[in-house]
Design brief:
Blueprint (H helix, E strand, L loop, with lengths): L1 E11 L19 E10 L2 E7 L10 E4 L3 E5 L1 E3 L11 H8 L4 H6 L4 H10 L2 H17 L2 E7 L6 H17 L4 E8 L10 H18 L5 E6 L6 H12 L4 E6 L7 H7 L4 E4 L5 H7 L5 E4 L1 H7 L6 H6 L5 E2 L13 H12 L3 H8 L1 H5 L18 E6 L5 H4 L6 E6 L2 E2 L1
Helix pairs in contact: 4-5, 5-6, 6-7, 8-9, 12-13
Length: 411
């Protein structure tokens, strides 16, 4: 089966195969072809070029995309899509003056979601999560990472990871799985948090590995949650099972989590709303991808990741949604790209790079996803007729997407 797109107003993110991520000033460059064509064969990108030089192609289907822009699907490298219920009451509580920490101390926050998930049957958790996954796919996401972390018991954490596995089996896009048992301290372990870490490391982690339910390990390294010592201990243990770190750091405080992540060769360090000079220095020369989650900052009214400091230090940056019931009940990567431009002062080129090629890197997918490259998977977005790609982040309240293709097929 072959598909030919012709008269593309602009084909974005056209790259050679060996480019896996972009950093610093490179992120200002977004390679494009104007008045372009794109050939898809089966589920891969076969060829592309300018309409001025289009060869004779006998495709099974041809689509005229005059006035429309084509770009790779978004790569969302940080989500918590698998959960049960919602937390809209806490949304009202915050409006009424309670902080995220105060809500957590009252039994809300992550512990609230954990209680709901523990009480919800696995098939119902799957149905709710599948609906959210379908929603983000329609919004242009073509690769996604999903974390556990709303279970906080052995049974419930494994239940979440089984749901992630089932989503991966039933939906035709890359779904990466992360074990985040160290997301919060359960109430019953409040006075003995070390005992909960013992449970995560000695009881749950071996089962996760044995059942092949996760590729990555995560921990919420933050005051009031898990310490630097906890982080080192968990990541050392996970290394023995072949799980790579992708960790929550610097959401509210800088306590050394970035450096710890780099020392453990973390694939990514995520959140980074609070950054100091030591964090920036720790990332230099590493292969760790910093990941910003601007819609979390919007929802919680906390600072945004200092993108300009990170990029001016010649570092890369990825963007992701943090889709979850408490701090970011949205998986809309289009909004994330807009917020990066509006609130983090990223250029449209930088934001699109961060949400595609660098997002793919943060899931070890940049050899197959994240750019328009021969041989990569045919995951792409066709926009409506819009004036330019800058219009995507500019029109933050509009849906500029006409159609989304995953593996060469329109969803």
């Amino acid at each position: 089966m072959s598909l030919l797109l012709t008269n593309i107003k602009e084909l974005l993110q056209v790259r050679e195969q060996n480019i896996l991520k972009v950093s610093g000033s490179e992120m200002k460059e977004l390679p494009t072809i104007k008045n372009a064509w794109l050939l898809i064969e089966n589920d891969e990108i076969a060829d592309y070029g300018s309409m001025e030089n289009i060869p004779e192609i006998n495709a099974d289907e041809t689509i005229d995309t005059s006035g429309k822009i084509v770009l790779p699907t978004w790569c969302d490298s940080h989500t918590h899509i698998v959960y049960a219920g919602n937390r809209e009451q806490e949304f009202a509580d915050r409006i009424n003056g309670l902080s995220y920490e105060e809500i957590a101390n009252r039994g809300g926050g992550i512990l609230n979601s954990a209680k709901t998930l523990q009480e919800t049957p696995e098939d119902e958790v799957y149905k709710q999560s599948a609906k959210r996954l379908e929603e983000v796919m329609k919004l242009g996401t073509g690769a996604v990472e999903i974390k556990s972390g709303y279970g906080l018991t052995e049974e419930a954490e494994l239940k979440m990871l089984r749901v992630i596995k089932k989503l991966r089996e039933n939906y035709n896009l890359p779904v990466k799985s992360t074990f985040l048992g160290a997301h919060a301290i359960p109430k019953e372990y409040k006075n003995d948090p070390d005992a909960y870490m013992d449970l995560v490391i000695n009881e749950i982690l071996p089962k996760v590995a044995d059942q092949k339910l996760a590729e990555y390990i995560d921990i919420f390294c933050e005051k009031g949650y898990f310490s630097l010592e906890d982080t080192h201990r968990l990541l050392d243990a996970a290394k023995k099972f072949g799980l790579k770190p992708k960790i929550h750091v610097n959401q509210f405080n800088a306590i050394g989590g970035v450096k710890a992540g780099v020392e453990h060769k973390a694939l990514s360090v995520d959140h980074l709303e609070v950054m100091n000079d030591e964090d920036i220095e720790a990332l230099k020369g590493s292969n760790t991808m910093p990941v910003a989650l601007p819609s979390c900052s919007l929802f919680l009214s906390i600072p945004y990741t200092p993108a300009r400091r990170i990029l001016d230090a010649d570092l890369p940056l990825a963007l992701a949604t943090d889709f979850n019931p408490g701090s970011t009940p949205s998986g809309n990567m289009n909004l994330v790209v807009s917020l990066a431009c509006i609130k983090m002062k990223m250029t449209p080129e930088e934001a699109i790079n961060a949400a595609t090629i660098n997002g793919a890197y943060a899931m070890e997918l940049s050899k197959t996803h994240g750019s328009i490259t021969k041989g990569k998977k045919a995951n792409f977005i066709i926009t409506k007729e819009i004036p330019s790609y800058t219009y995507l982040p500019y029109a933050f309240g509009s849906n500029s997407i006409e159609s989304v293709y995953i593996n060469g097929k329109m969803i």
